[in-house]
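Before the break, one more example. Copy the sequence into your notebook; we will annotate it together after we see the structure.
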Amino acid sequence: MTVKITVASSQCFPPPPIIESITVVPNTADGDVIIKWHENPENLCTTTGYEIYKYDYAIQQFYLLALVPAGTTNYTDINAGADTRSQIYRMTTKSGLSGNEHSENHHSVFLNTVAHYEPCEMSATVSWSPYKTSYRDAFEIRPSDKKFNDSVACQIIGYIAPAGSPFNLSNADALSPVTRDTAVSFKMTVNQNYLFCLKIYLPNGEISYSNVREETVNGNDIPDAPKYIKLDSLVSFDTHNHLHFEIENSTQMNKFQIERSASLDGVFEAIHVFSDKNTAVYDDSTCNANTEYFYRVTAFNNIAHCNETPAVTSDTLNSIILNVKYLNRNIEVSWNGFISDSIYYLYRNGLFWLTLHNLQFTDMDVQYDFNNNIYDFCYKIEAVDRFTNYASISRRYCISLYKPVTMPNAIDPTSTFTNNIETGRQRNQFAPVVGGNESDYEYHMIIFNRWNNIIFETTKPMDTPVSSEHIWNGASPKGNILPEDTYLYYVKIIFKNSDQVFEQKGTVTLIYQ
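Here is what the structure looks like once it is written out:
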């Protein structure tokens, strides 16, 4: 167990506290600043409080801003003026004696106004005085300070809002990449009012913020970009992928393109260029039905004196590809994932079947459907993002399974008894008994004697009902009744709208009763 031994304040000079961060409060008009700290672990004195000092630019020296009690870990400097310039703070640990050691100086970040706007790229450049630490009155940068300062990273965050609106940090999105420079460019559409500030990532894990800027860049020669492009659905068919999207109508831009990639992180290439902002649909007929694609729609700044640059790009949607196979007397259906946090609606034979949250389904009702003469199964997946209602619908994928096939093992050429009530087959008729409609299949059947001579052959075409010419009645090629014996047969059955084939060799016995 570690025991901290404190020394009476009249005999002790405590080290300063460790300042964790200073940050401008982004939603305050006069640049309030919050200072956070913790006690120095090397302090062996009895702490009675902390002194907070602030730099006065007019007299160029620090003055005592506040004395806070021991145990305090933060302080808010109301109306600190961090909205007009960088503010500098340092602290001491109070232990009854004056002259205690001061901490390093912490400088708040001050974000300058937009220094430059590049109209062709619709890019604003801003600079700032960095968050940094320095040593004592001379602002000397020691090696330890330099290591800290060089590790500070920054990022512009903000959003479009009506002029004069209060800044809400929870609405702010990243407008620029993270950088360790003291200037950065970010996309900024003309004639739109932006609220933004700098988010500072300190090497100790703390987050700090700069003052807030409100800027509107006015421009008459730059066409207004659409406020949004919404690619809201992607429907896959056997021959094409159908996209439906919406381009915000106030835009003055007149170049747009459909872009496609084989992966989300891959290169998106233009597959269609158009100029009418009212265009809402596109059919991609160059796609492969069994390949996943990623699509997006982009608006371009294409005024004459600028290089073409993307202005606004929609969200990305991907196609859903089904994989269907018959396995272990069930049908296994699986598919690739859609946008994160999506739900999936499964359709079976044209009807909504159930809602799923995973990427596979086992259809265990197949055998039940066989009993009801259903052998063709078609599936479709509709994937929907649960928050934005973006949707991607797979193509309809059908699988045709073998109809149950039975072959009689004996016939009586002299009997007229009906052997199969459902099909009307008599006991003197030999032919395949196939589940489903007779028009759903064709077959080729050959009967041999024991010497492998053909004594009967027939072919039933597709869409033709079974008739007497397709059935062997136990007669020879000349029409004579053959003697009791065992005969060989070969049958090949092809099912309609399917590449599945049933083939079988077997024996049939002539029995006279």
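Residues 322-400 form a domain with the Immunoglobulin-like fold (CATH 2.60.40.10). The chain has five domains: 9-107, 110-216, 229-318, 322-400, 405-510. Try to locate both features in your own notes.
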